[in-house]
Amino acid sequence: MIPDNAIAPAGEPLDTGLFRSGLKINHLRLVLALDDHRRISAAADSLGISQPAASRMLAEIEAIVKAPICARVARGVELTSYGEALARRARTIFLELREAAREINELKSGSGGSVSIGSVTGPALNLAVPAIRQVSTAYPGIEINVQIDNSNVLTRELLAARHDFVVGRIPDDLNPRLFKLVEVGFEEVCLIVREGHPLMEKTSVSADDLPGYDWVFQPPGTLLRRAVEDSFLSAGVPLPSTVINTSSIILTLSIVRNTNAIAPVALDVARLVAGNGTQAGEIRILPTEFPIRLKPYGLITAEGRALPPSAKLLYDLILKQSRM
């Protein structure tokens, strides 16, 4: 049975008894890696250690905590309630360490702070960029770090305390209670092809016209990909048989421009590149007669984690931009 002082109740700091008992930062890193990857081998790889070393560390953790941290399941391992409690506290610890390092660096450099955000592509163009421009103009000392990716990646980066906030959607496979979400808009999606693509000869393209071509998709399980696949299924047509998976918009545009492949992208992205006079401008928006619907996106923060002042400034500007 776990000691009363081993894991602190919600809202209180972690008791130092665990550290006096031998718990180390690397132990906490392993717990978080197990929570993220759900397999000991994958967790070990992410930490750059061998699987036997990870197993030994896991045994050490369980001896210190005096409770099982994870349990084996059909596809790997999952954290027990004790493991989940330790992982939750570990994320807070690493966040505080990151904030301490950031504050120290700011004091050393005399800069105005730093912000790290993640965004899906469409909102990055129409919300984040204008807000970043305002912040950079008014507060030139602030350093802003931006990661563009899909929501599956970004929300996990947020939980790992690598971002202050994210502009995107909460994936269905994550517990929504881990986040706070303020919905700010809808992202329109379109299909793009190269200039001169056979389907551009049609005034309107139906779902039946699409399966015979190669497709460039975001990785399996991403919200955009699922929305497109749902459109196929709703229309009663088979899913494409030849698919290239990539989260890179640059690679997507290159493949589409040089082949007859089709790709779904945010409409704002398509409008930015289509017909702009460069090689990327050889992209065209396919006229379709069926909608591709994504659920609204929003500003996402981690539950129980306050934004530092510089991040709150950018967050508020993006929120204001969304309401204009």
Automatic annotation (TrEMBL):
<dbReference type="GO" id="GO:0003677">
    <property type="term" value="F:DNA binding"/>
</dbReference>
<keyword id="KW-0805">Transcription regulation</keyword>
<dbReference type="InterPro" id="IPR036388">
    <property type="entry name" value="WH-like_DNA-bd_sf"/>
</dbReference>
<protein>
    <submittedName>
        <fullName>DNA-binding transcriptional LysR family regulator</fullName>
    </submittedName>
</protein>
<dbReference type="Pfam" id="PF00126">
    <property type="entry name" value="HTH_1"/>
</dbReference>
<dbReference type="InterPro" id="IPR050950">
    <property type="entry name" value="HTH-type_LysR_regulators"/>
</dbReference>
<comment type="similarity">
    <text>Belongs to the LysR transcriptional regulatory family.</text>
</comment>
<keyword id="KW-0804">Transcription</keyword>
<dbReference type="InterPro" id="IPR005119">
    <property type="entry name" value="LysR_subst-bd"/>
</dbReference>
<dbReference type="Pfam" id="PF03466">
    <property type="entry name" value="LysR_substrate"/>
</dbReference>
<feature type="domain" description="HTH lysR-type">
    <location>
        <begin position="23"/>
        <end position="80"/>
    </location>
</feature>
<keyword id="KW-0238">DNA-binding</keyword>
<dbReference type="InterPro" id="IPR000847">
    <property type="entry name" value="LysR_HTH_N"/>
</dbReference>
<dbReference type="InterPro" id="IPR036390">
    <property type="entry name" value="WH_DNA-bd_sf"/>
</dbReference>
